[in-house]
């Protein structure tokens, strides 16, 4: 059964009930969002520290730069072109995460970036990469719960991050 898009406010209200009933959970959600959005770029920086420590040649290090960079630029251009409104704009509700920007909801750049960073990490350590992919999924869930993205925004971003990260397998 296909759900009507007018049901989104009802779905979102159902989704956030555990947070509304216990407001301290809203603070936890906000802290988790902040933590994940700072940890993932930090992980990316650690990837380069590890590569330098292992004295990896610039030629072998190059994919760790160009794959995420080109993906981010192309992703940002497409997102800017689509310029889909955020849930709180379309439905006029107060999101749990503080966000003041408008548009550029689809797909989620935070989730794409976290996923492509995770794919970099997978090249160095599969177990750490998989843990990082789990964190990128957690970030996706937080962004939807926070009301700043629709589920499709984060799912498409995560999938595109996996696909673009697949370039590591062919270089």
UniProtKB/TrEMBL annotation:
Keywords: Membrane, Transmembrane, Transmembrane helix. The chain crosses the membrane at residues 35-53, 65-82, 111-142, 154-170. It holds the Pfam family PAP2. The keyword Transmembrane helix applies. Residues 61-169 form the Phosphatidic acid phosphatase type 2/haloperoxidase domain. PANTHER family: AT30094P, SPHINGOSINE-1-PHOSPHATE PHOSPHOHYDROLASE. This is Phosphatase PAP2 family protein. It comes from Streptococcus lactarius.
């Amino acid at each position: 059964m296909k759900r009507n898009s007018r049901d989104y406010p009802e779905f979102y209200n159902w989704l956030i009930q555990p947070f509304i009933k216990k407001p301290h959970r809203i603070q936890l959600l906000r802290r988790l969002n902040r933590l994940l959005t700072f940890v993932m770029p930090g992980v990316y920086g650690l990837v380069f520290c590890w590569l330098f420590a292992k004295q990896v040649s610039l030629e072998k290090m190059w994919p760790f730069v160009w794959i995420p960079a080109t993906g981010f630029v192309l992703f940002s251009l497409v997102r800017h072109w689509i310029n889909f409104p955020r849930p709180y704009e379309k439905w006029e509700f107060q999101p749990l995460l503080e966000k003041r920007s408008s548009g550029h909801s689809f797909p989620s750049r935070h989730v794409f970036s976290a996923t492509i960073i995770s794919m970099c990490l997978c090249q160095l350590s599969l177990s750490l990469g998989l843990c990082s992919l789990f964190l990128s999924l957690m970030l996706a869930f937080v962004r939807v719960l926070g009301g700043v993205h629709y589920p499709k925004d984060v799912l498409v971003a995560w999938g595109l991050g996996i696909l673009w990260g697949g370039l590591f397998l062919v270089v």
